[in-house]
TrEMBL record:
Domain Beta-lactamase class A catalytic: 56-278
GO annotation terms (biological process): beta-lactam antibiotic catabolic process; cell wall organization; peptidoglycan biosynthetic process; proteolysis; regulation of cell shape; response to antibiotic
Active site: S460 (acyl-ester intermediate), K463 (proton acceptor), S520
Domain Peptidoglycan binding-like positions: 328-386
UniProt keyword Ligase, yes or no: no
Transmembrane segments: none
GO terms, molecular function: beta-lactamase activity; serine-type D-Ala-D-Ala carboxypeptidase activity
Short name of any one Pfam family annotated for the protein: Peptidase_S11
Keyword Cell division assigned: no
Occurrences of domain Peptidase S11 D-alanyl-D-alanine carboxypeptidase A N-terminal (ranges): 428-670
Annotated keywords: Carboxypeptidase, Cell shape, Cell wall biogenesis/degradation, Hydrolase, Peptidoglycan synthesis, Protease, Signal
Family recorded in the similarity comment: Belongs to the peptidase S11 family.
Name of the protein in question: Peptidase S11 D-alanyl-D-alanine carboxypeptidase 1
């Protein structure tokens, strides 16, 4: 929210700053431009070249580290963006006890200044509000009067000293807003106006906030700052062209020929820090189509689309992003199989999905043989050199392993102790998820949630219903457990996460359930639907349907029977499809019913499972499936199901136990894979502190 009523002397001041800044810009124009991402380079460089004004940009994906930078070290005017560092120092002082957010602040007429905000225009002399609300107004409405009140409490020198302590020596707050006489750096005020920063230093601040490394490491206070920034009401820059519903924590600024914006985009591909600084803009209009604002909006959308495209490739099973020591999951399994086939002699890696020392040693050996370095990181170049998996199991020592022996070894796996809560576990935590719910697994009582009944894409959490239906059939007909499923061409060709069973290979139903739920096999979902669809249709009097369609119809009948009013299934695996949605509450209630079957509970709690596959010529091979649920490595969690697509974001349905009490937590649309686990763990900590018979908590979780 920016004022359109600036007085003439303000415009003259901005013009003087503009003249002074021109000289500074010429000094920094010779700095070399830098970029760490060819993909972002191709998308963003033409936008920057076409903009009529000076630009400093930095982008960093906070999950992968992929970065783009353009004049990121050049000092630039901030306008109101400098209020973000003021917020940081205020909360640092709260963390040390030097400030109290409840301290009343009294508004006097002499405090009022023009421009953005609501205090000057809507509040009376003598109004008293807590410091926390002063900071809220400063960020949400960019309130200039609130900013000056906050500076009275914190101090200009203190803000700059904290930035210097963090190593950000080019980020400085020069004076109070519309109070040039308070400047502690007159030369800086003349050159840059209210404040100065660089795109690189801004990204550093946002990354530290994301990692909870501000406010003396106090996570609750970092969450409080994020909450202010998530509610910033400026929709003219970073937010403008992003898909509806995208969460953005941000702060913007605008004065005359300066437009600035910085923040974190919470996208399905993960959190992305973006900073766009523009000055000496030719277009200085205060209109919705201002060129600098359109440039910022377009840049944010290009960044979103770039990383979304990478996420879509992952969903389609064509992920060649870097992989390094400590990684786990199906991509590591694929890597291990490829290394066993490509290296002579074979390193004999166990295909267990853990990127440990043996796998790293094999990667380095492969890199040296192909002259690709020796750092042990699987880069896109290494993936390309490894190629695709051959159609036969030759060279894979695990293919001949005894499944019973491997399963006995897997049964000895023990989870690690859970870490104690770092903050007040009774407060509703900040989460990145679009929707969440926590219910008592034994009573079904809702403990709390945010938009728990909103239908959303659910990704592979769909497979909870798929497994529930099959296990329900097995309970009524135990002999079906030993039926043999022969993989069809349709099943084997299903895109996305896979059990890696090949067309024509055979596996028992009881084993294939592990291929469905552990590696989240979309192919296994189709194979099981084909196996059971016809008999379910016959039992319900709906003969004549394709077995896959018949199984999906049975899923919807079961949802209706269970009262899951916000749920509709279009397929048995969860790949994105129109109207394939469920609410967090429906998924929690479905899971509670499914867990009544001990076989389902044991299935989803399994970390690894080996099975024997037989092909059409009678040749056998052993395959190992690893559970995608990272919480199973931590004591107190008993699994259930993950899910990830570009539309759904990162999803998780999880069961946790503390003593005799069990809680089900569902998060839909978390910002990234790691975020869903952080969201869930924080919600579990909170949920276990709620009385079983407590009233429903309606906190928004932000």
């Amino acid at each position: 929210m920016r004022g359109l009523w600036m007085s003439a002397w303000v415009i003259v001041w901005a013009w003087v700053d503009g003249v002074a800044f021109e000289a500074a810009a010429q000094v920094h124009a010779q700095r070399p431009e830098a970029s760490g991402s060819p993909g972002l380079e191709r998308r963003l460089r033409p936008l920057i070249a076409a903009h009529k004004g000076d630009v400093g940009v930095m982008v960093k994906h906070l999950g992968t580290g992929e970065t783009f930078a353009h004049r990121a070290d050049a000092p630039m005017p901030t306008a109101s963006l400098i209020k973000f560092p003021l917020l940081i120092e205020a909360y640092r002082r709260v963390a040390t006890g030097a400030l109290d957010l409840k301290t009343p602040v009294t508004l006097h007429d002499e405090d009022k200044v023009p421009g953005a905000g609501i205090l000057t225009y809507h509040f009376s002399q003598g109004t008293t509000i807590p410091l926390r609300d002063v900071l809220r107004l400063m960020i949400v409405y960019s309130d200039n009067t609130a900013t000056n009140l906050a500076l009275d409490a914190v101090g200009l020198d203190a803000v700059n000293a904290e930035m210097a302590r963090l190593g950000l020596k080019r980020t400085k707050f020069h004076s109070k807003v519309y109070r040039r006489d308070t400047s502690i750096d007159p030369e800086g005020s003349r050159e840059f106006g209210l404040g100065v920063t660089t795109a690189a230093e801004m990204i550093t601040l946002w990354e530290r906030l994301h990692l909870k490394k501000l406010a003396e490491g106090n996570e609750a206070l970092c969450d409080a700052m994020l909450d202010h920034l998530l509610h910033c009401d400026d929709k003219s820059m970073l937010v403008k062209e992003l898909p509806p519903g995208t969460k953005v924590a941000q702060k913007t600024g605008a004065v005359s020929d300066v437009r600035t914006a910085a923040g974190i985009l919470y996208t399905p591909s993960g959190p992305i820090a973006v900073c766009v600084l523009t000055a000496r803009n030719q277009d200085q209009r205060w209109t919705p189509d201002n060129a600098a604002e359109r440039f910022s909006a377009r840049l944010a959308r290009e960044v979103y689309d770039h990383f979304q495209q990478a996420a879509d490739l992952k969903e389609a099973g064509r992920d060649d992003s870097p992989l390094a020591f400590g990684a786990t999951g199906p991509r590591v399994e694929r890597l291990q199989r490829l290394l066993n086939r490509r290296l002579e002699p074979s390193p004999g890696l166990v295909v267990d999905g853990d990127f440990g020392p043996a796998t790293q040693e094999a990667v380095i050996r492969f890199q040296k043989e192909r002259h690709l370095g020796d750092n042990g990181v699987v880069t896109p170049e290494v993936w390309r050199a490894l190629g695709e998996l051959p159609p036969d199991p030759a060279g894979d020592p695990q293919a001949e392993a005894d499944p019973a022996q491997l399963n006995a070894e897997f049964a000895t796996l023990r989870p690690e102790p859970a870490e104690p809560a770092a903050n007040d576990p009774t407060a509703v935590p900040f989460v990145t998820a679009r929707a969440w719910v926590a219910i008592d697994a034994d009573t079904g009582r809702v403990l709390g949630g945010r938009e728990p009944e909103r239908p959303l894409d659910m990704a592979s959490t769909t497979k909870i219903m798929t497994a529930h239906l099959v296990l329900k059939e097995l309970a009524a007909h135990p002999e079906a457990r030993d039926e043999v499923v022969t993989f069809s061409a349709r099943a084997a060709a299903t895109p996305g996460s896979s059990s890696e069973v090949r067309e024509g290979e055979r596996v028992r139903v009881g084993e294939l359930l592990y291929g469905l739920m552990l590696p989240s096999g979309n192919d296994a979902a189709v194979a099981l639907a084909e196996q059971f669809g016809q008999r379910l249709a016959a039992r319900d009097g709906s003969d004549g349907l394709d077995p896959l369609e018949a199984f999906v119809a049975a899923m919807n009948r079961e949802a209706q029977a269970l009262g899951l009013s916000a749920t509709r299934f279009v397929n048995p695996h969860g790949l994105t499809a129109p109207n394939h949605q469920a609410s967090a509450l429906d998924l929690a209630r479905l899971t509670r019913v499914a867990l009544e079957n001990p076989e389902f509970a044991a299935l989803v709690a399994t970390r690894r499972r080996a099975a024997r596959l037989i092909d059409g010529e009678g040749k056998g091979r052993t395959i190992v499936w690893s559970n995608t649920n990272e919480l199973l490595k931590i004591e107190g969690f008993a699994g259930v199901k993950t899910g990830t697509t570009s539309s759904a974001g990162a999803c998780l349905v999880a069961l946790g136990q503390q003593g005799e009490r069990r809680v089900i937590v569902v998060v839909l649309g978390s910002a990234a894979s790691a975020s869903r686990y952080a969201d869930a763990r924080n919600l579990f900590r909170w949920a276990f502190h709620q009385p079983v018979a407590a009233p429903i908590e309606t906190g928004d979780g932000r």
